Amino acid sequence: MDGAFAALILLLGLIALGVVVVAKSVALIPQAEAAVIERLGRYSRTVSGQLTLLVPFIDRIRARVDLRERVVSFPPQPVITEDNLTLNIDTVVYFQVTNPQAAVYAISNYIVGVEQLATTTLRNVVGGMTLEQTLTSRDQINGQLRGVLDEATGKWGLRVARVELRSIDPPPSIQESMEKQMKADREKRAMILTAEGVRESSIKQAEGQKQSQILAAEGAKQSAILAAEAERQSRILRAQGERAAQYLKAQGEAKAIEKTFKAIKASRPTPELLAYQYLQTLPEMAKGEANKVWVVPSDFGTALQGMTKLLGAPGDDGIYRYTPSPVDPADTAPDDDEDVADWFETQTDPAIARAVAKAEAEARTPSPVLGAAPRPTPPPAYQQPIQIPPSGPQSPPSGSQFPQSPPSGPRHGS
């Protein structure tokens, strides 16, 4: 019974020993992780991402090292700048183990080593800068820190990828002063911008008033010129119309006298008819308001006899009758001369029509926008080549606008 129990205990001991031997002989190293193996206390080899067999009680794993890139944030460190201000700077270091053997044997704790090296390097770099340079030179500080850390940690089997300054905290008093300075600068820029805006507005308003006055002056000038030209043309046309009217009136009176004289000649009046007409004319002479007294001439008969002798010749019965005068070639001459034939044309002068059309087009043209390029100003109407012939019977105007009386007969009279 005691022998069986002792054999069982021995068997269990052998099984336990076998399990321990197997556990000491096999090691599973995952990917992105490296194991430093020592044999009898000396470095043997480095394995990563595989199943490794070890010699029990001779080989052992000294350390397991993570090969992935690591991000380590260090607490804020007090740093004194060149202008004697204390800043609290928080840094973040990105590094990766490239040589597990050096990371295990070259330094006892590479994370602490990186932290201390970053702190000392940061103090050296920032100590040569002022506060303003420190706040505005983050990229420069990051580059210098990375260069120094990468060079110093290369022998430790590390590669520093990046170094970033996460925060730079100046003292509260300095922050308050900076905020006041920033506020003052912003207020200054706001006042400057306001003043510039007022200045630009005043300039624009002055330019607008200037352009408005210039345009108003040009408009008044054009209006005065057109008014003067219109008055000139109106006077010329009225003078031409009066000239033509006087000519027509004289022509009409001449025609009336001629017709009356011809009618008298054709009717062959007797002295009795002339005496009767003379007696009818005498009361008309007395109808005027200024005529208070009128006298009948005493030699009335003698006057009638003289008129009868002038108009006629005595007949067989001794009575004076009208004798027609011989035909005068001058009576058959045309009434109108060729020199005044153009006085009564109703066509519009083309030059005047063009000037009026151009003036109307300029009046309808909108004014240019302020600030835009001015459009070319056309020559005023008074500079247009309007050809107005001089007044006179020898050079009648071609554009007179007068109604022509309809002729009662042939153009040159009968």
Automatic annotation (TrEMBL):
Q: Where is it mostly found? A: membrane
Record keyword Transmembrane helix present: yes
Compositional bias segments (type: Pro residues): 375-396, 404-414
Q: Does the keyword Zinc apply?
A: no
Highest taxon of the source?
Bacteria
Keywords assigned:
Membrane, Transmembrane, Transmembrane helix
Q: Where is it found, in Gene Ontology cellular component terms? A: membrane
Instruction: List each copy of the Band domain by range.
Output: 24-182
Cited InterPro entries = Band7/mec-2_domain (IPR050710), Band_7 (IPR001107), Band_7/SPFH_dom_sf (IPR036013), Band_7/stomatin-like_CS (IPR018080), Stomatin_HflK_fam (IPR001972)
What Gene3D superfamilies has UniProt attached to this entry? Band 7 domain (3.30.479.30)
Spans annotated as Disordered: 354-414
Localization annotation: Membrane
User: CDD domains under this entry?
Assistant: SPFH_paraslipin
Q: How does it sit in the membrane?
A: Single-pass membrane protein
**UniProt family annotation:** Belongs to the band 7/mec-2 family.
| Protein's name according to its UniProt entry | SPFH/Band 7/PHB domain protein
Q: Which organism does this sequence originate in?
A: Mycolicibacterium brumae
